[in-house]
Queue: 3 jobs
Job 1
Amino acid sequence: MAVLLSATGLRRAYGRLAAVDGVNLRIAAGARHALIGPNGAGKTTLLHLLAGTLRPASGSIRFAGRDITRTGPARRARLGIGRSLQTPALFGSLSTLDNVVLAAWRHTGASAWAPARYRQLASRSLDRLESLGLADHARQPAGTLPHGRRRLLDIALALADDPKLLLLDEPTAGLEDADLQPLVAVLSGLPPETAVVFVEHNLVVCTRSSGTTGLARPRSCTPSPVSCVPAPAASASTIET
Ligand SMILES: Nc1ncnc2c1ncn2[C@@H]1O[C@H](COP(=O)(O)OP(=O)(O)OP(=O)(O)O)[C@@H](O)[C@H]1O
Ligand SMILES: [Mg+2]
């Protein structure tokens, strides 16, 4: 498959802490790629760099044939990069359906309220909820959904504009075994051309990926203003399976 996203030499520091350092990544269209590593290894930071919510200090990112290193997150979303956060960001008092409609509406770029547009998006969004097994919760306030359903809704939001690349930060975090299966089924059931990069601690879920990138601990600095001690392991390694 053609390369959809490639990142070269990505680096991002918080003060003197290099959270992501020298990361190279190549994601093919339709790939299911796991990011693994210990707490603080820079997984979330790397997703921020790919989504455009953080800029790299150095390195470059190409997506679907164009350089997006300096492209902002809204434009990247319109180009086809969808994402879900480590902690789902939902409008708790709005219905599950309206959360998806709003996400889809944002992608249309339309600002004015239009009932016909709402009906069209609501119908499409209901289909999406149906495919994720959430249709029974469509009218329920999103804030009252159980944790596992919220995770699924978060994925529905990220899918609102049929992204070419879906970035998921720990989609299975905190899920009971009973909720794990529906989520894995949803990820397996995504269109084959949709690439997914996901941060995951659950190795059973990781074994379903087509490639894995392992991030080591970030480079840390001693309190001394002159000496900087790199962590012993390499910053990133990629395992294609
Ligand atoms: N906004 C920030 N300001 C300062 N340091 C930060 C910030 N965000 C992250 N860090 C630090 O950067 C490093 C990488 O953080 P990041 O959240 O990317 O790791 P992670 O691999 O996602 O960790 P986890 O598995 O706990 O979610 C950590 O040492 C973290 O404390
Ligand atoms: Mg994280």
Job 2
Amino acid sequence: MYSYILEGFSWAKDIVSWSYSGDPRYHNEIRQAFSTWDNLIALDFVEVSPTVQSDIFLGFSPIDGPSGTLGNANTLFFQSSGEIISSVITFDPAESWILSNSGEAPANGTRFYPVAVHEIGHTIGLGHPEDPNVIMYAYANDVPNPTYWDIYGAQQIYGADDSGVDVGQIDQFDPLSYIASHGDLIVSFGTNEAAGSEHFWQTGLFEAGRQITFEGLEYIASYSDLMSAFGTDGRTATNHFIQDGYFEGRAVTFEALEYIASHGDLAAAFGADIKAGAAHFISTGTFEGRDTTFNGLEYIASYSDLIAAFGADTKAGATHFIFTGTLEGRDTTFNGLEYIASYADLIQAFEADPDTGAAHYLNRGLQEGRQADGFDAQQYLANYSDLRVAFGTDLDAATAHYITDGFAEGRVDEFLF
Ligand SMILES: [Zn+2]
């Protein structure tokens, strides 16, 4: 049932170097094989010159003549900790190796690339499962790339690559949601589910950035006309997005996890269940006048440990608050609007959007030494009676006004009189 084997050893670092010395015709496919694994797991492979000491060394050396053993990987590791010290991959030069672009039929020999992927699989800690349909099977087969179980096994050890797909999260693969997550796939495939499925398993899994992020219920919850038209029928809504919504410039703006995090009763009832949160808003929350007040990025930006752990991952921030942050009594002190309003260059570059401000802070501002306390919304309101009439005591509205209009009008937040 589980078609992967873990050898019990693994790299204890995030960046693993490799070098190859041998026939240059094979160099490119070795690079591709490393890049394939690199895009699947949270391990970075960097190539170094063969004159430099590397973690993994690859080359050709006679093993047992034609056929039999095609290659092997010898991995040195600490018995006590399982930490890998180094690994050597050897390919047998006696094989009739076939390169991917040679046009030769597999009947005439053995494809080199899948064997390289297989051997690298050994150097990261994968063994031989008893399943002829996976690339880590002990005997050469026609499997061209790592399959679900190969990836699952490797991600058990290292986790998924930041920009890749976590296959453990795919309980039921939905080709429509996959297509809807990527504009180029919408254009190429429309609602052709078979084409979407094939693209995912053969290509998308191995490309950076091909996560499945689209959730039909969140799309519905983003627009009142869609709520009336589709209710909680996420599948029909996903079809609508692929056929019309995408081309009308619609986008998903409703974040179910932020909505849940905004309401204690929903957090208790739904946890981090995105579908349940979005469905609640569509069928109940919108009629109860419930808002999303929690902002995942602002929450992360309020705590240095969360910044280190989550970066600009909105969903991770909301999930942390739902399960941990509330219990720890954490709250959001970073204000994305105030941050933008603190800097003239940001005011000119951005609209009055708290997400944009918080994302800039997390991605760049923090390193640039910027802070979010350079704007005094209270004093700004106190300075202008027309703003007090318009905004009352709403400090966020006043800050947004400063960003969109006030700054350009020459208004100020210093004490005027
Ligand atoms: Zn093997």
Job 3
Amino acid sequence: MLVRIAGFEHMQPLLDVAAQVGPLFGVPELERTRDFREFLERKIGQGEALVALDRRSGRTLGFLCFSRRHNRISFLAVDGGCRRRGVGSRLLGCALSLLDAGRPCGVTTFCQGHPGGEPARALYRAFGFRELGPLEHLGLPRAYMERPAGAGPGTGLPQRGPLAERCNQDPAYCPACRRAEPGERVAELAEAYLDCPAGGPFGRCILTAKEHQGPFYAMEREAYRRFMEDAARAARALQRAAGAVSVKLELGADGLAHPRACLTPLFVDDAAVTREAAGRAADDQEAEAERLWLLQRLREALEEERRRETAPV
Ligand SMILES: [Zn+2]
């Protein structure tokens, strides 16, 4: 399965999927309504539509539209023949990673008991959404669900594609520039912020440059030096705090206007744990408790780094 940002060439396949779910939504011939077609065109134009494709056949399995401005999921539909293949989960996970986890994320979906609506509700619950109450949408009874701020791995930073380009051109639109105080930031370092998002392998941290400037290979020499010093500082602290054998550092050359580095602690039993198993473990309560424990230790280790650097020799 391949998840991509939808282009106008996907318009008809998306309408075909929408045609299938219209009756379920209580809007027969949804795909023919002018409002929906305009909505879809707008979303594709803004780079706010994701499509899941069968990688080999190119068949459209489902799609999702979201709103960066309102930080919400606007539409989700999966082809009737492709249910239970994890299509919705892939699309929603991807959308959440593109939205701002520092703000609540909302969605309007089916009410409890809506025929055929439970899979969607279960999907949202699995991603941390909670029902806040009933509402009426386009004259139909619906439920409003919300995922609280700080509930997941989304950094709000699009990695590539039209979204990244738009953010790069316009700092006013750039979630990294606009970013409010997220509750879980580990630390503010000299040149970058350090985060340890939930949902990934244990201890994986993201270092994001504060300045809106371009990819790391286009950074000014001084900024680059300070950024790499932050990376080294964070790696030392992470290794100590997590009890890791070493730390892998990956620099993002993805065209983002905020240079980023990913720090992953490596452990002696890593080879015995598959990536998939590690991802699953990250969902459970113990993994979350361990992550919060690490956050605290990591802050202390960074403080220790700072003391060492400023200590007179
Ligand atoms: Zn920015």
